[in-house]
């Protein structure tokens, strides 16, 4: 095989040089590749062309003793050695460019910088060898002969390749696979060829391999470029989809906000537009409309009453019968609505719905007296939905009309007031609604003004957070599984979590920004998934005598939180389920998000009992997280998990009182005011919040003050020891712990308080107005532990 290669290597060199030249040409025409990276790839291929042609000339003219042969042999051999070094130099800068762009690191590895010096050294030695014969010599017949220093000429390229290979291996995780493959091939194949060339003298394996790999570098780079372009195109498409979805969401939110503002003019029409939009969508779906048409009908219905903005509130909210003049004014709201919405030229269907939703099928409607199919189809659908919601909603003069009466009204008015097709669809919807769920319901704030939740895939529909406190929260709801699902596989769930905005966040950036933390998920069959909770103790007692008569199941949920423990009870005819949850600490809040899977949750009501449950209401299943289990000073240590959730007993002020203590912000603390507070007050029992409690001042050691306008005046002064105070450093210092000292002087009705902590000097002069003879000071705070409290009175 090697003899065969030897016989064709000159032709192979010529072909490969042509391919390298063509590659360099096409590469120069490429516009999408990084400019610097393309430049070094072009150089690599140009140097490969020179290398292959020089090597070929060296073979062709060896043994030629003519003057021209003498010159060609020496020039070509010199160029062979030089081009190998130049190719490695160009490839090294190609690797450096990849490294900087792909890894995101700013400093080029020392090994890649060292390679440039090795190549310079190699060039210098090559020039020296021309005069000393260090690498090679020529005999009398003009034949090339290796010298003892030939190994040095081989070692430098070998060292360069090994250094490049080590960098590629170290940072391979930062590189795409297509790039890794090309870099590893270029650094390993010449090494293999070099080893073989030492054995098979007269065969230019290194040069042929290098020429071949120079072209392959471009092909790999081209493939990587195409993949990058494809990824960019996909990102762009995804971005456009996301932008479209966000635009649609913004449009929906704007439309819903406008509809809510319209409905809010009359307390008896609150939620009317939203319900009409939902009913209209259902009618459109059953009428066989496509998704776009259903969406258009939904939005048109959502804004159908926008013209009421121009109608007097006194007319809209009038309890009795309207006068003829008032009725004529109310009949103008479709015209006003059409004028308002006609400016949205990209959505002409909006003004159509507003203009014609009070037209009647028999032509006796308003404002234009249109008849039959002359009435736009959107308006005919909205007219049915609008009338249905008017009958099924409570008004000042009546309750919601019974479902059977509503049905009779639609039967009676089909073909006169209503389009027969859409009226029949509404009759079908009424027949399907055996439990009369399609009507105005009591609002539930956590469900965005509705009392129902439609759950398809798990967690696609989730309520806002229902806060859990030491006052028992009671939730009642009914769950109906979707068609084709049994109650065991379609039921509600609760997500227990904490976040700054009391909402569940699936997006990682929003979750981080809003301190979202999920404790656990609880299904209404007694199963659960523990996420951030320390421990969960379930107790499930099934009712063995329960028989499923109706698919709908009613549930009562009880929830309460005491410090770092939460109790959730789920009661139904099927089972009694109880979860005791040990939270990571007492400082976090707890919210419940109501969700489910393949079910329709309705009749939701949320009530909170007045008064806190007893401290031992929840059996403890994990030890309390405490940061005050250290020796106490003159007063017991306190841990305030929330805003002023704990306080020391009051210290009666003498003439000159000094209070020292150690403070540490809790791990959950994230704000500047998560620190100790100092309370000046009076009460009958000397306790914060005691009988006849009057607070004269509340001073935070971060430099904030709360005055008591009724009982005292405060002259508050703060001095920061630095003009550019670093509050992040302040927070970190408080988390590590600081020692604080507070000096309080009391004379007559004046209390002077001074303290200096972490570069903040505070002076507060309180003048007490209620003449209390006994004034106390107490320590409290927000998300902090206060220990080693010492009191010195002089």
Write out key terms for the chains shown.
7-stranded antiparallel beta sheet; alpha+beta; 794 residues; 18 helices; 42% helix
Can you characterise this structure?
The protein is α+β, with helices and mostly antiparallel strands and 794 residues long. It is built from 18 helices and 26 strands. The strands form five sheets. Strands 3-14-5-10-11-12-9 form a seven-stranded antiparallel sheet, with no helix packed on it. A hairpin with a 2-residue loop joins strand 22 (738-747) and strand 23 (750-757). Helix 3 (67-103) packs antiparallel against helix 4 (110-132) and helix 12 (333-341) runs antiparallel to helix 13 (348-356). The relative contact order is 0.05.
| Major β-sheet annotation | 7 strands, antiparallel
Kindly report the spatial arrangement of strands forming the biggest sheet. 3-14-5-10-11-12-9
Instruction: Estimate what percentage of residues fall within beta strands.
Output: 15-25%
Helix content: 40-55%
| Coarse structural class | alpha+beta
Distance between the termini: 104 Å
- State the shape: extended
Radius of gyration: 41 Å
Fold topology:
Elements: H1 2-29, H2 35-61, H3 67-103, H4 110-132, E1 136-138, E2 144-146, H5 150-170, H6 177-199, H7 205-263, H8 272-286, H9 291-302, H10 313-316, H11 324-330, H12 333-341, H13 348-356, H14 377-392, H15 403-413, H16 420-432, E3 453-455, E4 466-467, E5 473-481, E6 492-498, H17 508-513, E7 517-523, E8 528-530, E9 535-542, E10 553-562, E11 565-571, E12 575-582, E13 591-596, E14 599-608, E15 638-640, E16 651-652, E17 656-665, E18 676-682, E19 694-700, E20 704-707, E21 712-720, H18 727-736, E22 738-747, E23 750-757, E24 760-768, E25 776-781, E26 784-793
Antiparallel strand pairs: 1-2, 3-14, 4-13, 5-10, 5-14, 6-7, 6-13, 7-8, 9-12, 10-11, 11-12, 15-26, 16-25, 17-22, 17-26, 18-19, 18-25, 19-20, 21-24, 22-23, 23-24
């Amino acid at each position: 095989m090697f003899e065969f290669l030897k016989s064709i290597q000159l032709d192979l060199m010529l072909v490969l040089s042509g391919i390298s030249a063509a590659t360099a040409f096409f590469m120069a025409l490429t516009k999408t590749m990084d400019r610097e990276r393309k430049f070094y790839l072009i150089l690599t291929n140009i140097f490969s062309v020179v290398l292959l042609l020089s090597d070929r000339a060296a073979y062709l003219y060896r043994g030629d003793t003519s003057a021209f042969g003498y010159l060609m042999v020496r020039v070509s051999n010199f160029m062979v050695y030089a081009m190998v070094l130049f190719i490695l130099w160009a490839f090294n800068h190609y690797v450096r460019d990849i490294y900087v762009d792909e890894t995101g690191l700013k400093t080029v590895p020392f090994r890649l910088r060292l390679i440039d010096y090795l190549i310079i050294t190699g060039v210098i030695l090559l020039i020296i060898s021309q005069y000393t014969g260090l690498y090679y010599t020529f005999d009398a017949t003009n034949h090339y002969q290796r010298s003892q220093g030939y190994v040095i000429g081989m070692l430098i390229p070998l060292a360069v390749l090994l250094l490049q290979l080590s960098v590629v291996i170290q940072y391979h995780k930062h590189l795409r696979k297509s790039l890794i493959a090309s870099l590893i091939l270029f650094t390993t194949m010449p090494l293999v060829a070099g080893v073989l060339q030492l054995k098979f003298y007269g065969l230019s394996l290194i040069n042929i391999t290098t020429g071949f790999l120079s072209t392959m570098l471009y092909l790999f780079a081209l493939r990587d470029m195409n993949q990058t372009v494809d990824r960019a195109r996909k990102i762009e498409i995804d971005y456009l989809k996301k932008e479209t979805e966000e635009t649609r969401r913004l449009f929906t939110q704007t439309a819903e906000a406008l509809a809510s503002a319209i409905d809010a003019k009359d307390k008896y029409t609150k939620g009317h537009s939203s319900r009409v939009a939902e009913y209209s969508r259902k009618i459109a779906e059953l009428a066989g409309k496509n998704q776009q048409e259903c969406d258009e009908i939904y939005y048109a219905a959502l804004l159908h009453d926008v013209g009421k903005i121009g109608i007097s509130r006194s007319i809209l909210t009038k309890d009795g019968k309207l006068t003829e003049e008032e009725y004529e004014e109310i009949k103008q709201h479709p015209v006003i609505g059409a004028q308002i919405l006609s400016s949205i030229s990209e959505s002409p269907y909006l003004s159509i719905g507003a203009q014609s939703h009070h037209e009647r099928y028999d032509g006796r409607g308003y404002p234009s007296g249109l008849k039959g199919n002359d009435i736009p189809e959107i308006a005919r659908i909205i007219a049915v939905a609008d009338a249905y919601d008017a009958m099924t909603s409570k008004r000042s003069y009546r309750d919601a009309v019974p479902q059977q009466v509503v049905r009779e009204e639609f039967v009676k008015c089909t073909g006169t007031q209503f389009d027969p097709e859409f009226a029949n669809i509404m009759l079908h919807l009424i027949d399907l609604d055996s439990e009369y769920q399609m009507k105005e319901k009591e609002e539930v704030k956590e469900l965005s003004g509705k009392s129902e939740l439609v759950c398809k895939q798990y967690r696609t529909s989730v309520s806002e957070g229902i806060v859990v406190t030491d006052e028992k929260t009671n939730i009642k709801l009914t769950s109906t599984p979707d068609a084709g699902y049994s109650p065991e596989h379609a039921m509600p769930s609760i997500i227990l979590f904490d976040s700054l905005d009391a909402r569940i966040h699936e997006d990682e950036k929003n979750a981080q920004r809003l301190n979202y933390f999920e404790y656990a998920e609880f299904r209404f069959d007694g199963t659960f998934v523990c996420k951030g909770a320390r421990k969960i103790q379930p107790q499930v007692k099934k009712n063995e005598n329960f028989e499923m008569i109706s698919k709908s199941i009613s549930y009562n949920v009880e929830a309460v939180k005491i410090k770092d423990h939460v109790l959730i009870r789920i009661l139904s005819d099927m089972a009694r389920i109880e979860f005791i949850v040990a939270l990571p600490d007492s400082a976090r809040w707890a919210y419940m998000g109501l969700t489910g899977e393949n079910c329709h949750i309705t009749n939701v009501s949320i009530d909170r009992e007045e008064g806190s449950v007893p401290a031992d209401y929840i059996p403890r299943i994990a030890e309390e997280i405490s940061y005050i289990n250290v020796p106490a000073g003159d007063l017991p240590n306190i841990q305030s998990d929330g805003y002023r959730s704990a306080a020391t007993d009051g210290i009666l002020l003498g003439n000159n009182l000094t209070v020292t203590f150690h403070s540490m912000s809790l791990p959950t603390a994230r704000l500047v005011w998560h620190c100790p507070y100092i309370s000046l007050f009076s009460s009958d029992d000397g306790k914060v919040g005691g009988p006849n409690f009057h607070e004269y001042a509340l001073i935070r050691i971060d430099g904030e003050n709360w005055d008591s306008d009724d009982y005292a005046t405060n002259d508050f002064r703060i001095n920061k020891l630095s003009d550019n105070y670093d509050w992040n450093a302040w927070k970190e210092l408080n988390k590590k712990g600081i020692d604080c000292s507070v000096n309080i002087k009391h004379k007559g009705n004046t209390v002077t308080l001074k303290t200096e902590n972490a570069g903040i000097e505070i002076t507060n002069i309180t003048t007490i107005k209620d003449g209390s003879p006994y004034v106390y000071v107490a320590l409290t705070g927000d998300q902090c532990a206060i220990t080693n409290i010492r009191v010195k009175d002089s």
